[in-house]
Write a structure and sequence with these properties.
Layout (H helix, E strand, L loop, with lengths): L1 H17 L4 H8 L3 H23 L2 H21 L3 E2 H4 L20 E3 L5 H19 L3 H18 L1 H19 L1
Antiparallel strand pairs: 1-2
């Protein structure tokens, strides 16, 4: 009977962390009460909640957000109007509304479709974050690989899969700290 409860708990954990279901739906699918499910979710300092959060903020999602931010910044820079020094100075006009001073022959560009130093710093930071994320493994990636491996082992040897699952849960808890 204890083995069935363990299976229910593992299934409920999978549904909670991987699927976008309500607690009521998870309890029904795992064949447990909502009270039991809430207890499991709250165990071990909210381990399931942390795991779900880490899976929702996966590396591909973060990388996509950074690429989107970089694209928006580059579009803003590219599509921005050119501003010259004379455009920033107040213009004196005569009674008819004509400017009293002629535009200077050399009118340096203050701002155009070249990034400011602040924008360049932001571009560098976003690019570095993308490079770092593309080169490292997130907890979500580790969990996905671990769950796939556990499913593979479960088909061969259920008892070994349970042992692996326990060790893997310990590993993930340590990574979350």
């Amino acid at each position: 009977m204890g083995l069935k409860k363990t299976e229910q708990k593992e299934y409920a954990k999978f549904l909670y962390t991987e699927k976008n279901l309500t607690q009521k739906e998870i309890a029904e699918k795992a064949d447990v009460t909502e009270k039991t499910l809430i207890k499991w979710i709250g165990e071990n300092d909210g381990e399931w909640k942390k795991l779900k959060k880490s899976l929702l903020t996966t590396k591909p999602q973060q990388i996509k957000m950074l690429y989107d931010q970089l694209a928006r910044l580059n579009d803003d820079i590219l599509n921005r109007a050119t501003v010259t020094q004379s455009m920033l100075k107040p213009v004196k006009i005569d009674k008819e509304g004509n400017p009293t001073e002629a535009k200077p022959e050399y009118d340096p560009i203050i701002l155009s479709n070249v990034p400011t130093s602040k924008e360049a710093d932001t571009i560098i930071k976003i690019t570095n974050a993308i490079n770092k994320l593309e080169g490292e493994t997130s907890i979500g990636d580790s969990v996905n690989v671990g769950m796939d491996f556990c499913e593979f082992v479960r088909e061969i040897d259920f008892a070994q899969a349970q042992k692996f699952s326990e060790f893997f849960d310990l590993f993930i808890r340590q990574q979350l700290q």
